[in-house]
Design goal:
Layout: H1 2-14, H2 17-20, E1 34-43, H3 53-69, E2 75-78, H4 89-105, E3 109-112, H5 125-134, H6 137-144, E4 152-153, H7 164-176, E5 180-181, H8 190-202, H9 206-235, E6 241-246, H10 249-264, E7 267-269, H11 272-275, H12 295-302, H13 315-325
Parallel strand pairs: 1-2, 1-6, 1-7, 2-3, 4-5
Bound molecules: zinc ion (ZN).
C-alpha cells in the first residue's frame, strides 16, 4: 500500500498524529511497515528438476505465478550463456529466449548477471567487462520491444573485486555503459536448500524435499530477523531491503509461502528502483575481498564494525549439499 508507506516516511509532517503515532500500548507483535525489493538471479533457471525446454517453460510459469499472485514487482538477472545449449539447435535457443519473454510479458524487469557467471575476483577486468557485454544482446533486445532499457547489473557471487582500484574501475565502466549496480542487503543460502531440494525430487524422495523446504522457510525467517536487527544497529531505522533469491525449483514451489510470511512481517513489496532511493544505498562502502557478502556487511565494515555472522542453514541441509557436490 503506497499510502501506508508514505505515512511511514512522512507521517509526522503530513498526516494527522492520531493516524500515525503508534498507540503506547501497541501489541508487542505489531511491526512497522517495511519495504523490500525482491530480485532473482541466474535466469532462466538453476537447480531445477528437469532442464529440457518444455519443462523449463512450465517451471517459469510456476515461478512467475508466485510473483503475480502476491503482487511482487520482481527484477530477474539473466545469464545469457544459459540460452545456448549444445545439441538443442536454434529451436532450443528460441525456446529459452521465450522463457525470458515470459518475465517481461508479466511486467517484470530483467537485468544483466553476465553471460557466463564468472567472478570479477578472478577474471582480469577487460575479460569480465567483455562477459558483461556478451550478456546483453538478447535481454536488451527483448526489453527494447517494450520500450524499456537494460539498466541493472548484478555481480555473480556478489564478488565486487579483490582490490579497490579494480572495483572502482569496473563501477565507473558500468556506469558509463548505463548500468546501475543492484546491491543485495538480504543475502542468504537459498541456493544450498535448492540444490538439496531438487536432488531429493530427482531421486524420488518428496518427503525429504518437503523437509528441506520447511527448513528453508524457517531459515529465511531467521535471515530476516538478522538483517532487520543489523539495519537497526547500523542505521537506527529499517532500510528498504533488497532480497536475493535464485530462479530455482524450490522457489517455484515455495516463493509464494515465503512472500506470505514476509507480508505477515509487515513487508510491502516495492520495485528495485524504489528500494534504491533509500539513502542507505549511498553509504560509504569500500569493501573488497574474496567473500561475496551482503551490502549490509559492506556498510558494517565501512562503519568500522566487526562483521556479524548471518544465520546458517541447518546441518542436515549443508551436509546433504556437500555430499551432492562430491
Ligand atoms: Zn548468480
Amino acid at each position: 500500500m503506497p499510502a501506508l508507506a508514505l505515512c511511514a516516511g512522512l507521517g509526522l509532517l503530513t498526516a494527522p498524529a492520531a493516524s500515525v503515532n503508534p498507540a503506547p500500548r501497541q501489541a508487542p507483535e505489531a511491526r512497522p511497515v517495511r519495504q523490500l525489493a525482491v530480485t532473482f538471479d541466474d535466469l532462466p533457471a538453476v537447480s531445477v528438476v528437469k532442464g529440457d525446454t518444455v519443462s523449463l517453460g512450465v517451471f517459469t510459469d510456476r515461478l512467475l505465478e508466485n510473483f503475480t499472485t502476491h503482487a511482487v514487482p520482481v527484477t530477474g538477472f539473466v545469464n545469457e550463456g544459459k540460452l545456448t545449449v549444445a545439441g538443442e539447435g536454434l529451436e532450443g535457443q528460441a525456446a529459452r529466449v521465450a522463457l525470458l519473454g515470459k518475465w517481461l510479458a508479466k511486467g517484470f524487469e530483467l537485468g544483466n548477471h553476465t553471460y557466463s557467471h564468472r567472478s570479477l575476483n578472478e577474471l582480469p577486468i577487460e575479460e569480465f567487462e567483455a562477459d558483461v557485454v556478451r550478456g546483453e544482446p538478447v535481454t536488451a533486445a527483448l526489453m527494447g520491444t517494450q520500450g524499456r532499457r537494460l539498466r541493472y547489473f548484478r555481480h555473480p557471487f556478489l564478488h565486487v573485486g579483490l582490490d579497490l582500484a579494480k572495483r572502482r574501475a569496473f563501477e565507473a565502466w558500468l556506469s558509463a555503459r548505463g548500468y546501475t549496480v543492484a546491491p543485495v542487503t538480504i543475502d542468504n543460502d537459498d541456493y544450498i536448500f535448492a540444490a538439496v531440494y531438487a536432488a531429493a525430487l530427482k531421486e524420488g524422495a518428496p518427503e525429504t524435499a518437503h523437509k528441506v523446504a520447511d527448513a528453508y522457510l524457517v531459515y529465511m525467517s531467521a535471515v530476516f530477523d538478522f538483517h532487520e536487527a543489523l539495519a537497526q544497529s547500523l542505521f537506527g531505522r529499517p532500510v528498504r531491503h533488497v532480497l536475493l533469491l535464485h530462479a530455482n525449483e524450490l522457489n517455484a514451489d515455495y516463493a509464494g509461502r515465503l512472500f506470505e510470511r514476509l507480508r505477515q512481517r509487515n513487508y510491502e513489496f516495492v520495485s528495485l528502483e524504489k528500494a534504491l532511493e533509500d539513502p542507505a544505498y549511498a553509504s560509504a562502502d569500500a569493501y573488497v575481498g574474496r567473500w561475496g557478502i551482503s551490502w549490509m556487511h559492506h556498510w558494517e565494515q565501512a562503519m568500522g564494525r566487526p562483521r556479524t555472522g548471518a544465520p546458517d542453514p541447518p546441518a542436515f541441509v549443508t551436509e546433504a549439499y556437500e555430499k551432492g557436490r562430491k
